[in-house]
Design brief:
Blueprint (H helix, E strand, L loop, with lengths): L3 H20 L6 H23 L1 H6 L5 H23 L5 H32 L2 H22 L1
Helix pairs in contact: 1-2, 1-5, 1-6, 2-4, 2-6, 4-5
Length: 149
């Protein structure tokens, strides 16, 4: 069974590739709109499911609350960027500039989770609990995708 940290890293790797795919598009094309929408839905569903699994666990532990709150705040920041981008002209230079900022922020967030947040959480979680959190994440993510879409 995969643990929560491995499962989240799998999504992060896919999100990095999706970010590059959107960054490689130009103008208000079907390719840009479809790639962006796929990214928006998957990242948002991932964040929601992550909050209901790993971050719910971290927020319940006093020594991990600050790290959990920080990551949840970064999820909200990403949601705000996605909302802005949906409402902008996809062919404008402003859209591309805003997307590049989102891309940088998401890459920073994923790196921070993988290098700091996960390491801190791993210290306090048994292997069994880490596997259980992966099951919770895997159950929640498809439901969250439906909600977000």
């Amino acid at each position: 069974m995969t643990d929560i940290f491995t499962r989240l890293k799998q999504d992060h790797d896919r999100h990095r590739a999706m970010l590059e795919r959107v960054a490689d598009t130009s103008g208000d094309t079907e390719e840009r709109r479809a790639s962006f929408e796929q990214l928006r839905v998957d990242v948002s569903a991932h964040a929601n499911a992550e909050e209901q699994s790993l971050y719910a666990e971290m927020l319940a532990r006093p020594d991990l609350q600050d790290k959990g709150r920080h990551s949840v705040a970064e999820h909200k920041e990403a949601d705000d960027y996605f909302e802005d981008l949906v409402d902008m002209d996809f062919s404008s230079t402003g859209w591309l500039a805003r997307f590049k900022t989102l891309k940088e922020r998401l890459e920073h967030h994923m790196d921070e989770e993988e290098n700091e947040i996960f390491a801190a959480a791993k210290k306090d979680l048994s292997d069994e609990r880490a596997e259980e959190l992966a099951r919770i994440f895997n159950e929640r993510k498809p439901e969250e995708k439906q909600e977000v879409a």
